[in-house]
Amino acid sequence: MKSMKVLAMASAVSVLGLMTSPVFAQGSGNELVNHGNAMKTANAAAHSKVAAATSLAAEQMTYHGGQVQTAQKVYVVFYGSQWGTAGSNGLPTTDPAGEAPLYTKFISSLYGTGDNWSTSTTQYCSGVAVGTVNCGTAGTHVDHPSASPLAGTWVDNTVSSPKAASQTQLANEAVKAANHFGVSGTNVQIVVASPHGVTPSGFGTQYCAWHSNVSVNGVDTTFTNLPYISDAAASCGSGYVATGTSGVNSTTEGVTIVGGHEYAETVTDPLPGTTEAWRDDADSTTGGENGDKCAWSYGKSGIVSLNGGNFAVQGLYSNNKGGTGGCDLYYNSSTDQG
After folding, report:
1. What end-to-end distance do the CA atoms of the chain give, in Å?
2. d(CA 321, CA 63)
3. Average pLDDT over residues 178-202
């Protein structure tokens, strides 16, 4: 019996274009390599739907030699004085759409038997031959946490978040947060959450969020640029899934659709700008990861129950679905998913 109930499904109403992949380094002491692994906005299809659909239909992901996350921990920094101060729960006091508690509750729910959505990531591994499609029992697999992977939050109101933060500014904030938490390494996810009313460069017109990696005291560490998603409205998922009686707020459902997309891609490809782990090769400009291949109209989306909370999510790509690969919303095993 499946322990995760799919409560509602989305119709295909918009297109996810896949972002181009510039690679650059920012200084020897703060090397930002942004592979461009971005969840594009529904309205900004820089690449054709045909190309993305072909990638989804025709090619499973393969292993490219990099590491996967085996003990993932998520640390969220709320970037800028626009978030106000930290309340008694450690979350910001200025958050008009309530994105901070929604996102942190979602991440906190990705563990144990109450989560059969993110479990598809556990089929992927490191330490096998480049080109591997199915790890089986070989290699070192992505971990499925037994408890909440959320390890810390911090409201950094010592600075004002720029109106249009650059990739370098976001990377610098990720380094600052990593040092604040005293963490670094492949298993770390630093999430740089921008406040309402600011627009990191490209947000809402080119992407909804993206993940990359940056050097923290000489150690490659993954980080995610997570803007204030509801500011982009329908372009980044507001109203995308019919909520029914689930209690999910349609205005902010993009927060967990987009946030889940980046989380799942990070655990399977944490260092995309250094040594890639899992993606397909159908389009060399996209490097389709497990979130990209099932986003927006290219795969199913729905509202699922995770450890007692209901959340809007997209499907994730499973190499072993049906023997040839596909998108799933729940994953109990290689033979029980859908």
Report:
1. 13
2. 17
3. 97
